[in-house]
Design goal:
With about 325 residues, the chain is α/β, with parallel strands linked by helices. Helix content is about 40%, strand content about 20%.
Length: about 325
């Protein structure tokens, strides 16, 4: 009897030990860090934009948030001409993260430029609005009225240049022959316009853009509307409708320039972009900081307020980076 009881006790002890091992195993699995978690370390380069543009202003504020959230990472901001140059830098390994417009990304992919297949999306950020700025007494009322004018079209590597050339073509103008294109950025275009060196300039950026806002307060300007018919031509000539959409600049974007009037225009989404080379932990942490710092940065750079967790994962035309997917999974209700 005692031997039988002893065997029973041993079996019970064995079963209890097995259950305990399973429980401990499950607990260890639950507590074990998911792929990409842990404190990232090393260095990263963030390619932004021209000095007075929204990309650079946003990047400067984001740098502080990243430094706080990722103390083991050395962060370097690098100014650029804009979206096209930003994508080339990231795709070829000159930078780790950047911001670019969705139309510039689609163009980079469709033209199969170097490293295009490595590009990945992290966050759909905010929309850029195309702004065609002229002196208030200008005779330019539509894009087609720019014929024969000196027009700031953005630097060669900018997203502004891409959409400006496309809008001009949609309006029936040759961007090289029917205007005098001046390839300068938002850092110098306002000054040139106010001093008579330009008749008009294109800008594509978040609302309001500080350089345009400052110009409107010191010099009489207005914004030229881009009607739905022009937008339809732009869309039909340049691929799927999802990259360009009709939009309206609210009347209070630039009160001095708009004088109580909203202005129809074109909008295109901005994306936070990296490549498949970037470590998952780094990408997850970067994505997390972008979302979490939205309100704080948005007090200084209004466009940052428009980052929305509900739509952030839609980085079309890019696949979402695995590290960014980890973040979105972690906050999914």
């Amino acid at each position: 009897m005692f031997r039988a009881l002893s065997r029973f006790d041993r079996r019970r002890t064995l079963r209890a030990g097995t259950v305990l091992a399973v429980v401990l195993g499950l607990l260890a699995w639950w507590l074990w860090p998911a792929r990409g978690e842990g404190a990232p370390s090393g260095s990263l380069t963030f390619s932004t934009g021209v000095h007075s543009g929204v990309y650079q202003r946003y990047g400067e504020r984001l740098e502080g948030a990243l430094a706080k959230d990722m103390p083991g990472v050395s962060i370097h901001l690098r100014t650029s001409e804009g979206s096209q140059q930003n994508l080339a830098r990231v795709a070829t390994g000159e930078a780790d993260f950047t911001i670019a417009t969705a139309d510039a990304v689609a163009t980079y992919l469709s033209e199969r430029r170097p490293g295009a297949e490595r590009l990945r999306g992290c966050v759909r950020l905010y929309d850029d609005y195309v702004q065609l700025v002229v002196p208030r007494d200008s005779d330019v009322r539509t894009v087609s009225d720019l014929r024969g004018k000196r027009v700031g079209v953005g630097q060669e590597g900018s997203g502004v240049r891409l959409v400006a050339d496309r809008l001009l073509a949609a309006a029936g103008l040759d961007p090289a022959d029917d205007i005098t294109p001046v390839p300068v950025g938002i850092d110098t275009m306002p000054g040139r316009l106010s001093q008579g060196g330009l008749d008009a300039f294109f800008w594509s950026g978040g609302l309001p853009t500080a350089a345009v806002q400052a110009l409107s307060r010191s010099f009489d300007v207005r914004l030229v509307p881009m009607e739905a018919e022009l937008v339809a031509k732009l869309q039909s000539a340049n691929g799927p409708i999802r990259y360009y959409r009709s939009a309206v600049m609210p009347a209070d974007a630039y009160p001095e320039a708009q004088q109580g009037q909203s202005v129809p225009t074109v909008a295109v989404a901005n994306l936070l972009v990296t490549t498949d080379r970037t470590d998952a932990a780094m990408t997850e942490a970067f994505t997390r900081t972008v979302i979490n710092s939205r309100d704080r940065i948005g007090r200084e750079v209004y466009s940052a307020q428009l980052v929305d967790l509900r739509t952030a994962i839609y980085t079309d035309p890019l696949d979402v980076h695995d590290g960014a997917k980890d973040y979105y999974r972690s906050v999914k209700p």
